[in-house]
Model the fold of this input.
Amino acid sequence: MSWSFIDVQSTDPAFNLALEQYAFDSLPRDRNWFMLWRNHNTIVVGRHQNTLAEINEAAVREKGVTVVRRLSGGGAVYHDLGNLNFTFIQDAAQGGQLDMGLFCRPVAQALQAMGVDAQVNGRNDITIDGQKFSGNSQYLREGRVMHHGTIMYDSNLDTVAQVLRADPEKIQAKGVRSVRSRVTTVRAHMPRPVPLEEFKALLLKEISRERPMDPYRLTEADISAVEAIKKARYDRWEWNYGVSPPCDLLRKRRVEGCGTVEAHLHLEAGQIAAISFYGDFFSAVEPEELARHLQGCPLREKDLRERLTGTDISQYLAGLTAEGLIGILLEQ
Done:
């Protein structure tokens, strides 16, 4: 079967994941598809993960990192403009089994041809000297498979460590957790380090040796369809956070004039299913009333602000304002 190549120019993660879905669902199935693409600073969480368990919320906000959920399973990964992502879309093997190596090996072999000793290791990683630079995942449906992976070519490894770190004492999550590994960048191992765009061209050249590819230019109709998918799914908090498995969170802060406030939350579908307040604060009205008032509220700023409008928080937590409570719940 022939191959077509989509050279993605967008760095918008929501658009790019929507484009993957569109290519998988709607582009002709009489050929195979290959994509190379980049995202600006982004955490992409796996389909079955709890978003809040995978991210360091404070670092995500501070660094302006986008958080988006993909269709496939596996663990959370960090993308920046030093990272190059690849996608293979083709008919699945007979029996519909996932085969990571089938798509990891061509990438490893392409890097070997460039003088980089890349190896396929474990379930879904590609490594150099035992250090991971590529995480991979697959989505299988209706006899078709989409395999996508990362290549940390020149990524900021300090940022990777900061934004993908959650405090285990503050969250007990259900769902698939990521396994943190020692990581490296490909550029550090290149015999002749080159800019990312040149590396991208070299990679495409090597991948194409055994699978010649015709370029495919997205039409206006394609782009319009992708934008519709983006708006309906990947731009939505309900998808990126709300479909998370249940989890328990602890939020704790000492507030001048109030004391120490601990909020113990149980979340379901990203909403507050239960919350309890503990600490050395004073209250004129039992905090349990405030807890009942917050039940069912999504744990995001605009919803908390709406739910607390007109509520005198100081009655329940003396010396605390609604703004202060939102800051505690969201760790702002």
Notes: DSSP finds eleven helices and 15 strands in the chain.
